[in-house]
Design a protein that fits this description.
The chain has eleven helices and 14 strands. The protein is of the alpha/beta class.
Amino acid sequence: MKKVTTCFLAILFCIGMLAVAGCGADKPAASDAASASGSAAVPADIKAIKDRGVLKVGIKVDVPKFGFKDPNTGETSGMEIDLAKQLAQEILGDASKVEFESVTAKTRGPLLDNGEVDYVIATFTITDERKKSYNFTEPYFKDGVALMVKKASGIQGLADLNGKKIGVAQSATSKKALESAMKEKNMKADILEFGTYPEIKTALDSGRIDCFSVDGAILAGYLDDSTVILPERYDPQLYGIASKKGNDGLAKFANDTIAKLQSSGEMDKIIEKWGLK
């Protein structure tokens, strides 16, 4: 009886060992599990960029110090170009792996909507209305709507533009800011919309309009000996990096990058590099 019991226990022991071995065979190696976990941690929208090998960013090409394409060299440079390269460095490990798409105030939203660009970094003012359509990072630059006039015009402020013509960019926030300010002053002016900033400057130089209005830092890039930027500012303009609604991985990544640049002091260095105020 004792011998039979001993054999029975031995058989149970063997069965138990086989079961353990079988479970071990089905369980992935620790390195495989870690790899799978790491892959799952990468959001789909970020992974798509990694697989593509290039980050697509919408930028301005007609705003000196922010995003400007030199007509002689064809090179594009500015503060927002630096930010785009920083994102490419963080996502792809190479600042040069970024493809730029020229945008205007009117086209930057649609290009995000149809997926032609991953981000828009183009003096894009954050507003509650725009937040309904796009994700925005925390602000990386603060400005205000300003007025540029010809020195010879004698115009000293918004009140002097009563009954005159003001040029603004299509789909920009400048028009709304000016309309609000004029309402408070009980005055009116004709606000004309143009496709690009150079067009507005040309209209000012030719006398078609009496004032060129957009954010102060943008106007600074068009200042010359014949013009002056008036000291008044209207409606604070906070610039943020925009991404498409639903691309939450891209939104978080951009916001984290801006936060890191600001906390490290690197953002201040970029702003100082381009002489922005």
